[in-house]
Amino acid sequence: MNRLILEEKDFILPERCLITGRRFRQLVDVIKCPVGKICKAGLLNGKRGTAEVIEVNDDSILFDVKLNEEPPEPSKVRLAIAMQRPQTFSKVLHIATTMGVKEILFFHSFKVEKSYWQSPRIQFEKYRDDLIEALEQSGDTVFPEIKFCSKFKEFTEGVLQEFSSGTQMIFGDPGASGDAHEFNNQPVTLLVGPEGGFTDYETSKLRELGAQGVTLGNRILRTEYALCALLGKLV
Predict the structure, then answer these.
(1) Euclidean distance between the first and the last CA atom of the chain, given in angstroms as a whole number
(2) Which of 51, 100, 137, 182 fits as disulfide partner to 41, beta carbons 3.0 to 4.6 Å?
(3) Non-local CB neighbours of 170 within 8 Å, separated by 6+ positions
(4) Are strands 103-107 and 38-43 parallel, antiparallel or unpaired?
(5) Rounded distance, CA 186 to CA 77, Å?
(6) Phi/psi at 64 (nearest 5 deg)?
(7) Burial (CB count <10 Å: 0-12, 13-18, 19+), residue 222
(8) DSSP assignment string, the chain
């Protein structure tokens, strides 16, 4: 936990918070916060600042809070990624959130198992904690906006154009010659396929819409590793 994420429900006074549960255990067992320690803190979807420990109890910590800093600038990358298996879905959310991506769209493609769309992992109440932990890790406070499109035709016939408006679309393609680094710090919509990659038909449709292929070389990477590498070149 590099920054304590506070929520409105934690405040018992305008500048005083009571922390319990998972965050309490981490603050006591891992960070070992004594009275007087000043921690980095931030209000979820709000400002950042500091929180000073004023009381440690058996199951809670009391903080005095001062929040006067803006959250970090968001990434200029929007991420459109094929729906992933539940375990990888969580990893993708964590990676993208820690890298500052604020707009994430999961879409269907030919090599995506239909069962993935029935997974409880894609319900907000299930992945909310993944987002919180990613914000704690990166020192950010602002949730990304998560969207879903369960039909590839719908995705390519309107959803993608709206989602990518004002950006250059690029997609991971081992057979391409372009390098994602060419788009560094530019408004970009990054398209990432499923574990088995896009089909020829899908890459053809993406190119028709103006997307350019970029490569990380001729090695085939797992989705989460490819995503890390691509975002590292773009942000």
Answers:
(1) 22
(2) 51
(3) 178, 180, 183, 188, 189, 190, 191, 211, 212, 213, 214
(4) unpaired
(5) 8
(6) -95, 130
(7) exposed
(8) --SEEE-GGGEEETTEEEE-HHHHHIIIIIS---TT-EEEEEETTS-EEEEEEEEE-SS-EEEEEEEEEPPPPPPSEEEEEE---HHHHHHHHHHHHHTT--EEEEE--TTS-GGGGG-GGGSHHHHHHHHHHHHHHHT--PPPEEEEE--HHHIIIIIHHHHTTTSEEEEE-TT--B-GGGGTTS-EEEEE--TT---HHHHHHHHHTT-EEE-S-SS---HHHHHHHHHHHH-
The model's confidence at residue 175, banded by pLDDT at 50, 70 and 90, is: confident
d(CA 203, CA 211): 9
**Residue 131: how many other CB atoms lie within 10 Å:** 22
Task: Give pLDDT tens digits for 29-81.
Answer: 998 899 999 999 999 999 999 999 999 999 999 999 999 999 999 999 999 99
| Residue type at 43 in one-letter notation | L
Asked whether 141 and 117 are in contact (CB, 8 A), the reply is no
Measured on CA atoms in the order 109, 112, 117, 118, is the torsion positive or negative? Answer: positive
pLDDT reading at 225 higher than 80 = yes
The Cα 192–Cα 30 span in angstroms is 36
pTM: 0.92
